[in-house]
Structure formats: structure tokens, C-alpha cells
Amino acid sequence: MKKTRRIFLKDVGQYAAALGLLGLYPTLSGCNNNPKGAGEETEKTGEGGKTTDLFFKISLAQWSLHKSFFGPGRDGGWEAFSKALQTDPDSVLQGPLDPIDFPSIARNKFGIDAVEYVNTFYFGKAKNMDYLKELKKRCDSEGVRSLLIMCDSLGNLGDTDEAQRRQAVEKHYPWVDAAKFLGCHSIRVNAAGSGTMQEVGQAATDGLGRLSEYAAKDGINVIVENHGGYSSNADWLYDLIKSVGMENCGTLPDFGNFCIERGPDGQCTNEYDRYEGTRKLMAFAKGVSAKSHDFDEKGNEIHTDYYTMMKIVKAAGYTGYVGIEYEGSELSEEEGIIATKKLLETVGTKLS
């Protein structure tokens, strides 16, 4: 892997240099609050200086830079992180980057003009209008669109305890309001809970339905990602969204999150086929998450065949945003984002 990585890094470096992307992160700011959601334009990009209309547009998921925002703030383990998030959320932000600069980083560092936020970077600020106004101002100054907010650590929408489930639903309300203010089209939620598939499914139908009713008044979508547990079973998630039966309740298919169960060593023991899963979830897709980890010497993601995946996305008639979500460790976050963007452009050019 080391040898192929060096070869690939050379290609990435040449690509980044050509775009002027290597160097220090800018301190400029920016995001346009245009709420077009899935997007009505196509991405103009291409290889060899040629301009090509892609059938989709590229966005950047904030989680791709989580190490740079959190730094050692997550080193104490999940339990300590969760406690700090609830009691002193800013204390977990110990990295070199400031979340308020995310839109300008996307635009000036990576040449991407649409962003997908993660609420844990702004956990105490859902109702902080001064902060949200500043974030929106920075967005507008750079012409970067706010697309969605990925919401975690707010309780389980599929909790089989009705009181706990209702509380989880209500904890999402401020993020719906924040999404509306920023001009996002959706919030991404988790359909999690403890119990049998049927029990959690029934509970999640209720939780998602209640939240979708609240979000509908502001024209905000509630979208569920295949994000572990039952939600990574595409059959279960498909049936769940169908049972909710609301236009603004959909999915965010993630290319790499189809592990249903893991063993004590953390290895996946039960995984849904990612291609069939993506094909199934595209029926309700209001966004797409291009998960990436590792690349070969040709720039291909070694765990996911991007050509096959994007062919599935296109066949579904999807023409909206595809969000880069790099989670690897072999490349730096910056290198991984650039590599994923280049791969999407390459594959998109072939398919468009």
C-alpha cells in the first residue's frame, strides 16, 4: 500500500497544484443560502482543460475534516466525548480549524461551492442567532450553498420508549429551524433504537413522522442515512421510509455504511451489499454521500467501485449533489478530499 500511495500522492499533488489548492488554509469566510436542495444546475468540470457537464454537482461533507476540527477533543473515547458535548460542547473543538470557517475552506481550499454541516461542530449553537447570522454572512460572501445539517447525539428517533422518543424528536426541532435559516434543504437524522427490527421500525415510523410533520411547515426534508444497525439494512430502511409515507421524509444513501453488525474486534460480520443497498435507497434519495477511505495507484477507491455506484445514482434519475465524505487514514484529510473529488470528476465525465 505504501508504494501505491506514494505514486498516487504524486498525482494528487499535481492535481492540487494545478488548482492552487495546496498551502495554508485561508482565513476568509463564506455560504450562499440558496435552498435549491438537490440542485438544478450541473457541475462544469473535466480533465485536460476540457469543460464537461456532469449529471450531478459536488458538495463537501464537514465530517471529512473532523480531525482538523476536533483535534484531540475526541481522544478520550466516545463516552467522554458525549458527556463533553452535552455539558461544554466547545471544549471538544481542539483542532487547528474553526467550524465557522468551513464554507470558506470548502470554496477556497477545495474549489467546492456547497457544504453539508455536522451538528456536533456547532452543538451549542442551534439557537444562537448571532452565530448563525455570522455563518450565513460568511456563506453569502463566498457564494457557497448550505445544503443540509447532519444531526447526531440528539436521542433515538426509533426509541421504543414513547417519552424518550418524543424527547428525541423535540431535540431535533432547533436544528430544523437552523437549517431553514441557513437555507438548507434537509437535516440528516438517524433511525436508531433498541429492540427487534419490527419494534424499532414501528417506533422510528412514529418518530420520523412526527419530526417530518414539524419540518414540513418550513419546507425542510428529514433524511435518513444508512448509518449502522438496522438502518444499514436497505430493506428495513426502504420499508421504514415507505411506511412514514411523507414527501419530505427520504434517504441519504452512503456508499460505505452498510455494515449491520460488528464482532467484538470491530470487524463487520453482517454487511448488506453496498451496490444493491444504494440502488434500493436511491428510490427516496434527497442527497448522496460519497464515502471514501483508501485509493490505489490509479486513483480508484479500493473498497467501492465509484463507476458502478455513480452509474446506479444516474440510473435513478438523480441530478443533485453528491457529498464528499472522506474517512481514511492513509491520506491526510486534505489529500483524501482532493482524491475523492478527482475520482468523482473522472467518473462523472465518463457517465455524463
In short, what is this structure?
The protein has 352 residues and is an alpha/beta fold. The protein has helices at 2-19, 66-70, 78-87, 102-110, 129-142, 162-182, 197-216, 234-244, 274-281, 306-315, 333-351; strands at residues 31-32, 44-45, 52-53, 57-61, 114-118, 144-150, 186-189, 221-225, 249-252, 259-262, 268-271, 288-292, 321-326.
CATH topology: TIM Barrel
Percent of residues in β-strands = 15-25%
What is the tally of beta strands? 13
Q: What pattern of helices and strands is seen along the backbone?
A: HEEEEHHHEHEHEHEHEEEHEHEH
Radius of gyration: 19 Å
Low-confidence segments, given as residue ranges, are: 1-42, 45-51
The CATH H-level homologous superfamily? Divalent-metal-dependent TIM barrel enzymes
Class computed from helices, strands and strand pairing: alpha/beta
By DSSP (H or I, 4+ residues per run), the number of helices equals 11
Distance between the termini: 31 Å
Question: Average pLDDT value?
Answer: 89
Q: What CATH architecture do you see?
A: Alpha-Beta Barrel
Question: Biggest β-sheet, characterized?
Answer: 9 strands, parallel
Task: Summarize the structure in words.
The protein is α/β, with parallel strands linked by helices and 352 residues long. The chain has helices at 2-19, 66-70, 78-87, 102-110, 129-142, 162-182, 197-216, 234-244, 274-281, 306-315, 333-351; strands at 31-32, 44-45, 52-53, 57-61, 114-118, 144-150, 186-189, 221-225, 249-252, 259-262, 268-271, 288-292, 321-326. The chain has one domain: TIM Barrel (Alpha-Beta Barrel). Helix 1 (2-19) packs across helix 11. 41% of the residues lie in helices and 16% in strands. It is globular, with a radius of gyration of 19 Å.
